């Protein structure tokens, strides 16, 4: 009798699961993302999937966006990872459904499932998790699938899996649901593999941002045809917003990376040269990326002083240099920093390397937004116009009172939602 054969369809490459989550704004004073518990959960889930799996050669265990190299094109890297993933695991939180970036990841993966066709083939490939519980007034049809993971664990619906990950008192429940989730991932990836296929890029599935953006990334840097004498032209382009301070180590301009950070935090963003951004900077929070070599030209100090005078509190400047650059910019960095201080901007940050630039950006975006909410223009509330009465409906008899329809009675005002991680 011949030995039983493994009927699973071979997978040449791919990833067992893709972890998707809503990025959190870092708290005041912090420099990087506040998603440490997402990282811990990813490590725990990867260990459990690895323990249960029998991967073929070239099959990776898991992916989440902290794996993307610092200088990479984030959106292209995410599309490739989504196209390789067998199971998509979104961590549902109140913030997830208000973040176009997170929803874009989910819609991209769903497009792959639609292209695969058969419901039998695609069942189980999208396995959501309740990460943070939702307030009672907020409902989403997708939540039922997330609750299915732990219907026999009451605290799961009440507190969410993040609390299980954080608190030792939930250790037994955490390990139970972790093992259950890993088992579902392994079963789907090994018994009903999709195989790698194209996933649409985020720009293909996310609706275009509004004409008037939530956030601006402005760049004050020389263009290639207006460089200071003897300055190496590598990294410069026809527009300042295309400046690459770290050269070939970054696939996208620095401004695009900063804009992607704002988008991951739920803000539509636009990049612009500083000279063309004046109107936006007066009414939108912004990060201003400054190349200190802008101060190396004759009379630059006088010109710059006039340019940056009157910048609003919600424009947060970052002086960007490269410690690996053979041409020392420290003199110009000191001069530009002093000019910005003199212009009334006390908090001037400096990034001297790509890791430092990446590490600082979430905090700078959050700080600019915080300053805008504190000092920005107040938009007066205009109530909607009263509806015009229709004679077709008739009028109530004189002296009578109109009893409101209970179904249309407005709800009590909802309490303010506290700010917090993944909210």
From TrEMBL:
NCBIfam families according to UniProt: FxsC_Cterm (TIGR04276), FxsC_Nterm (NF040588)
Transmembrane segments: none
Domain TIR, chain residue ranges per copy: 18-117
Biased composition annotated in UniProt, kind: Low complexity: 400-411
An annotated GO BP: signal transduction
Xref: Pfam families: TIR_2 (PF13676)
InterPro entries: FxsC_C, FxsC_N, TIR_dom, Toll_tir_struct_dom_sf
Region called Disordered, residue ranges: 383-423
Organism, as annotated: Micromonospora jinlongensis
Domain of life, per lineage: Bacteria
Name of the protein in question: FxsC-like protein
């Amino acid at each position: 009798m011949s030995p039983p054969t493994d009927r699973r369809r071979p997978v040449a490459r791919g990833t067992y699961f893709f972890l998707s989550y809503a990025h959190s704004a870092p708290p005041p004073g912090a420099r990087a993302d506040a998603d440490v518990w997402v990282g811990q959960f990813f490590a725990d889930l990867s260990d459990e999937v690895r323990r249960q799996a029998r991967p073929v050669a070239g099959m990776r265990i898991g992916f989440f966006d902290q794996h993307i190299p610092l200088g990479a094109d984030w959106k292209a890297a995410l599309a490739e990872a989504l196209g390789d993933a067998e199971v998509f695991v979104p961590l549902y939180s109140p913030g997830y459904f208000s973040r176009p970036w997170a929803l874009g990841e989910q819609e991209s993966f769903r497009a792959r499932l639609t292209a695969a066709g058969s419901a039998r083939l695609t069942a189980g490939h999208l396995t959501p998790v309740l990460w943070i519980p939702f307030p009672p007034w907020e409902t989403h049809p997708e939540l039922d699938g997330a609750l299915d993971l732990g219907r026999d664990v009451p605290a799961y619906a009440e507190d969410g899996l993040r609390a299980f990950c954080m608190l030792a008192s939930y250790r037994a429940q955490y390990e139970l649901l972790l093992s259950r989730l890993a088992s579902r991932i392994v079963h789907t990836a090994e018994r009903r593999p999709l195989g790698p296929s194209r996933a649409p890029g985020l720009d293909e599935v996310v609706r275009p941002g509004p004409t008037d953006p939530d956030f601006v990334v402005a760049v004050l840097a020389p263009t290639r045809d207006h460089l200071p004498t003897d300055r190496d032209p590598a990294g410069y382009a026809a527009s300042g917003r295309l400046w690459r301070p770290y050269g070939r180590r970054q696939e996208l301009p620095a401004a695009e990376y900063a804009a992607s950070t704002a988008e991951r935090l739920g803000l539509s963003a636009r990049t612009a040269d500083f000279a063309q951004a004046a109107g936006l900077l007066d009414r939108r929070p912004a990060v201003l990326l400054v190349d200190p070599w802008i101060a190396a030209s004759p009379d630059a100090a006088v010109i710059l002083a006039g340019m940056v005078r009157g910048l609003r509190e919600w424009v947060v400047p970052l002086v960007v240099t490269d410690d690996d650059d053979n041409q020392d910019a420290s003199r110009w960095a000191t001069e530009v920093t002093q000019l910005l201080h003199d212009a009334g901007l006390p908090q001037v940050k400096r990034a001297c390397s790509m890791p430092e630039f990446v590490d600082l950006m979430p905090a700078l975006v959050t700080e600019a937004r915080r300053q805008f909410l504190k000092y920005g223009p107040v938009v007066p509330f205009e109530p909607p116009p009263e509806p015009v009465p229709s004679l077709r409906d008739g009028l109530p008899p004189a002296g009578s009172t109109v009893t409101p329809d209970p179904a249309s009675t407005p709800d009590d005002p909802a309490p303010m939602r506290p700010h917090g991680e993944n909210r």
